[in-house]
Amino acid sequence: MKTEETLAPPLGDMDKEEFRRFGHELIDWIADYFEHIEDRPVLAQIEPGDLKAQLPTVPPEKGEAMEQIIADVDRLIVPALTHWSHPSFFAYFATSTSAPGIFGELLSAAFDNKAMLWRTSPASTELEEVTLDWLRQMMGLDAGYTGIIYDTASVSSMHAIAAAREGVELRIREEGMSGRADLPLLRVYVSEQAHSSIEKGVITLGLGQKALRKIPTDAEFRMDVRALEDAIEEDKRNGYVPFCIVATVGTTSTSSIDPVADMIPIGEKHAMWLHVDAAYAGSAAVVPELRHILKGCERADSVAVNPHKWLFTPFDLSVLYCRHLDLLRRAFSLVPEYLRTPEQEKVRSGSDYGVQLGRRFRALKLWMIIRYFGHEGLAARIREHCRLAKLFASWVEESPDWELMAPLPLALVCFRACPTLPTIDAESEVTRNARLDVLNEAIMHGVNATGKALLSHTKLNDKLTLRLSIGNIRTTEKHVRQVWDLLNEQLKLVRQA
Ligand code: PLP
Description:
Oligomer: single chain
Bound molecules: pyridoxal-5'-phosphate
Order of helices and strands: HHHHHEHHEHEHEHEEHEHHEEHEEH
């Protein structure tokens, strides 16, 4: 019910006492949300269009009471959420927010800084430099790298490819790519397991999908370095210009790690930029004994890592570490008169390094997270996720009904059910796999429909593969045991059907 005292005043913002009251109420609401999150289904249990059907199609003419708005969050919005913060969210790459990260977001919304120039937010600009240098040290990257924050890895990698292209000296910034007979086909190389964001980046930059060459992978889903070298040589013979290799450290399907160190000499031989997409796995390098995953990066040109994936940072925050900030700047800096400042030669302004002018104060939440948990605390949590994944994988390996489908370098388990099926006459391996695909898909949907856990899938060597990703700050062994039981219950049900 609307009450007069909580309606917006005729002018200006919410009354300060009400701001305090609702602020406290909302923090309590969030604390309760986390405390009882396991009572909620992980996957939103609604049908497409359900939420829209309950919302007015026209905006309110007059302001509404805050109580009513918060009540509608509970009644309408929460049931339409898939709860990424649920400890049994094991799909895609499991991620999570954290208390210091939420506080950072809250403060950043209050400050509402647009960090386009140093002077429009000295705090954001300088804190970003310091915090990213801390993260660089924690990941064991050398001091030749300078970090810059973007929203997502898709955008970080696109900027890396743009900087690489700027280095080719084809005056693309000035003259573009269209209507030019003098431009050869520029090529970017990724493995077949690379994330689709690289292809999108290539499309966005006007290079065209033709510019992307996908290199086969080995039995462990890592880029085949020999095939990479052959592809580059072949393209050169055809008059193309190979300019960028994108290695993936932690591929999306299996978390496989491309052999960056072996790719480096190839990039160097052909004077190409080597970008490392470590969006998922990069955070794991804060664990000293896992630092080796970034082996080779000491000679790469850029590395993208997403603290919003596995560093307990609320979405969004992606970091691009780059050795050639000058090229990034050359590709993107454009300073109209109204943005000229006396100090511009002495400072770093975020808008010089990307498409965006205004930039959110994202560094604040990362700074608070690193300070609150400390390097050791962050490493301990990631180490525990890897332990839990190995534990789950050991159950898979020990069971005759399940099998692992890929190596387990970190905390993502790729597996499938492989029970003995009643044989169909003259059944080929292909038919057996097709039947296992149907069975595994049914198991996954069965588990997800319980609302008690959420898994996702991929295809590996044409076989439907289930993925269990552990990366949530609240996930414990209890949740991993529970999903294992759920999987086995579903297997039983599906076999009986
Ligand atoms: N690169 C890899 C390896 C990924 O796994 C993902 C997403 O899962 C991305 C890039 C894209 O990340 P973002 O959503 O930050 O653009």
